[in-house]
Amino acid sequence: MGGKMDGNTQAVDVYLDSTLDSVDSAEELVLKVAREAGFPEEELHKISMAVRETVVNAVVHGNRYSAHKKVHLSASVDQDRLLVTVADEGSGFDPDSLPDPLAEENLLHQSGRGLLLIRAFVDEFQVRKLNPTGAEVRLVKRLIHAP
């Protein structure tokens, strides 16, 4: 794992290996940032699930576990929102071209629900194709302050 973490953990910018161990590292790093920003426990759980699913997709589907490819993770808090980006070095993908995981013919498939879960747990979800290769997923979770 290479990169930097801001001294007060309000920002993380690291490159992770394309292994499933990186999923745990990514989750821990982002949760540190989110905790310091004041996200409540229920929201931390949602952030955790969204980050895990996103990094799993980058490692498995994007980089295909390649030891020569990295996953770029960044997380920061800005104006009461957590911004997380996860980029891989794979061939990219179009989320609109993926099969509907809720369609009857897909209900029993063992995979294919990751993006559905991610979208359910964050306030904003965007995917963009990187040039020359790769995909970047951008997640935003807003911090709602109690009245």
Can you put this structure into words, describing what you see?
With 147 residues, the chain is an alpha+beta fold. It has a single domain, classed as Heat Shock Protein 90. 32% of the residues lie in helices and 27% in strands. It is built from three helices and six strands. The protein has a six-stranded antiparallel β-sheet, covered by helices on one side. Strand 1 and strand 2 form a beta hairpin. Helix 1 packs antiparallel against helix 2 and helix 2 packs antiparallel against helix 3. The relative contact order is 0.19. About 3% of the residues have low confidence.
SSE order, one letter for each helix or strand: EEHHEEHEE
CATH class category name: Alpha Beta
Major beta sheet summary: 6 strands, antiparallel
Residue fraction in strands: 25-35%
Relative helix content: 25-40%
Count of discrete domains: 1
Structural class: alpha+beta
The count of β-strands is 6
CATH superfamily (homologous) name = Histidine kinase-like ATPase, C-terminal domain
Low-confidence stretches: 4-8
Gap between N and C termini, in Å?
40 Å
**Overall 3D shape:** globular
C-alpha Rg, in Å?
15 Å
Q: Give average pLDDT, whole number.
A: 86
- Return the CATH architecture: 2-Layer Sandwich
Major sheet: order of its strands? 1-2-3-4-6-5
SS field, number of helical segments: 3
